[in-house]
Amino acid sequence: MNTDIKHLKSYYITNATYLLLPIKKDKLLHTLVYDKTGCLYVSQSPIKIVRASCRQMGSSYQSATDLSKQCLGANKHKLPIVVAVNYGDPCVIFPLMSPKSPLNVWVSFNSLINIQDQEGQINVTFKNFLDSKLDIQYTSFCKQYVSAAMLHKHLTSKWTHFS
Length: 163
Description:
- The chain has helices at about 45-55, 60-70, 140-160; strands spanning about 5-10, 15-25, 30-35, 40, 80-85, 90-95, 105-110, 110-115, 120-125, 130-135.
- By secondary structure, it is of the alpha+beta class.
- The longest helix is centred in the C-terminal third of the chain and has 25 residues, at about 140-160.
């Protein structure tokens, strides 16, 4: 493992978070977090980071999922969720697989600036122009991205309307 990568015991998702990638080390699941500061190695699984981030904001993973179901009017399996709010801007993340899968990757909606199809994979570009190849079909990624965009739009328009 690269020694330039900062090692952390825990991490909370914010609007500065780009991507949570699961990695196995010594039979344990950890996470490579890409955010605006670079790449971080966190000694927690992605779902533990997601759940802890929801708790940090005074909510729960189940409440975040319920809010998504309510906003999207859907009973989808791979729902985007809001894990934080920064000055009225919801931090929406979405899973690429089942959230129950230990290999699930979480992507931050707010961090993406480009998505390119690469024959069975996609190449995503984040705000800091970091590129990452992800093992997912372009159409599947786009469906998840659109759900996240709908959740973000629904919440921001709802919150703007009441402010």
